[in-house]
Amino acid sequence: MSLKQSKVGVIPSEWEVEIIDNLKSTERNSISMGPFGSKIKKENFIDQGVPVIRGINLKNFKFHEDDFVFVSEEKAEELKASWVKQKDIVITHRGTLGQVGYVPEKSKYKKYIVSQSGMKLSCNEEKVISKYLYYYLNSRVGQYFLLMNKSQVGVPAIAQASTSLKKIPVPLPSLEEQKAIVNNLSPLDEKIETNNQINEKIEKMAQAIFKHWFVDFEFPNEKGKAYKSSGGEMVESEIGLIPKGWEVEGLGKIIEISSGKRPKEKSPELNKEFTFPLVGASSIMGFVKEYNYNEPILVIGRVGTHGVIQRFQKKIWASDNTLVIKSRYYEYVYQVLSTIDYKSLNRGSTQPLITQTDIKNQKIIIPNINLLGKFEETVRSLFELVNKNNIENKALSSTRYSLLPKLMSGEIRVPLEN
């Protein structure tokens, strides 16, 4: 294979390099920023209408079609320059920088608005396949060019974001080879998404069992019939009627709770030296050299974000923004934590704060031990599949991460369809 040096590194000699400005669609507003803050405010958001794409919708190589806010059709018409349609690319230029999402051809909505922290790109499909460009902008080289003009003064931002985007050079094989590259990467994304959908269904199944047994009190009695519907005896408690023999106690009776710690060193990326996930209040926020937990734990936010319950079974480092919970009734406690109103527990004035005592003092129902054991056994078997899917997704993501730069540079060539 003959190679040549280019602005994006060494590439096959028959490939071209073109800037995004020459690859954008010929239609109006093919590259456009989100509306200024004065044009779209919180009071414009409604329960239904045209969805607004925010940074929260662009995570981990995926366009997440949930947690939308909406504006009316009339407001969307005012913001027409910021419309996003299927096959468009959306990029964050302020706040969490460089998140890149692709709106699929089978998206839930035909039209979206990009938020004031984002910008959108419509491609000329006669020159570049949109999804190929999406993958390139997610690659190490694409991210380098995308973020080369970032500023860390105040709120992180890309300086002159749309102008910077237009100037990004793109390695450009033939349309046939672009399609072949996309066809090699897309199945990895599709399998990851399938696993995520299975996991979501399992989560809902576990929640349904919890509600049926411990909220509706329709757990199976000695004869296998629903307890409350079959005339099971109920008694008064400080939180209302509960099955006879059950107790109302503080959550601290069935958990151990501690605070995470600040690591000595951390890296934003996984590498040979920094191998253990650094867990923050709502997600993995980097990697460290050591771990402080290596057992089944539940992690919730202590400072900052509250209400996200993270499950871990293996080696991690829980940061000082977290509270770490252990329990022999792991699955039951996980469901209980999902029902707590964390806003009501906030003690922080400048930023949200929850203490260990706040969590331990939460009043909960404690069923009889036999029923708790049966729930643990039932739900644990469901989450074993979740864990298996998560392990597979990690391997698939690793494969994609290693393949992406090789495919985008032509180091690996893919066979073209006849």
Task: Provide an overview of this structure.
Its EC number is 3.1.21.-. It comes from Metabacillus rhizolycopersici. It is a single chain. The chain is of the alpha+beta class. The chain has 2 domains: 155 residues, Adenine-n6-DNA-methyltransferase TaqI, Chain A, domain 2; 177 residues, DNA methylase specificity domains (Adenine-n6-DNA-methyltransferase TaqI, Chain A, domain 2, Alpha-Beta Complex). The strands form 10 sheets. A 4-stranded antiparallel sheet has the order 4-13-10-11. A 4-stranded mixed sheet has the order 8-5-12-9. The chain has a 4-stranded antiparallel sheet with strand order 20-27-24-25, with no helix packed on it. Helix 5 packs antiparallel against helix 8. The longest helix has 41 residues. The radius of gyration is 25 Å and the shape is elongated. The relative contact order is 0.12. The mean pLDDT is 94.
Considering the chains and any ligands shown, give keywords for the structure.
418 residues; alpha+beta; Adenine-n6-DNA-methyltransferase TaqI, Chain A, domain 2; 2 domains; four-stranded antiparallel beta sheet; four-stranded mixed beta sheet; 8 helices; 28 strands; 29% helix
Q: What is the strand and helix layout of this fold?
A:
Layout: E1 3-6, E2 9-12, E3 16-19, E4 31-33, E5 50-53, E6 58-59, E7 62-63, E8 69-71, H1 73-78, E9 83-85, E10 89-92, E11 100-102, E12 111-114, E13 118-121, H2 130-138, H3 140-147, E14 150-151, E15 157-158, H4 161-166, E16 169-172, H5 175-214, E17 234-235, E18 242-243, E19 247-250, E20 256-259, E21 276-279, E22 284-288, E23 293-294, E24 297-301, E25 310-312, E26 315-318, E27 322-326, H6 330-337, H7 356-360, E28 363-366, H8 369-409
Parallel strand pairs: 5-12, 21-26
Antiparallel strand pairs: 1-2, 3-16, 4-13, 5-8, 6-7, 9-12, 10-11, 10-13, 14-15, 17-18, 19-28, 20-27, 21-22, 23-26, 24-25, 24-27
Helix pairs in contact: 5-8
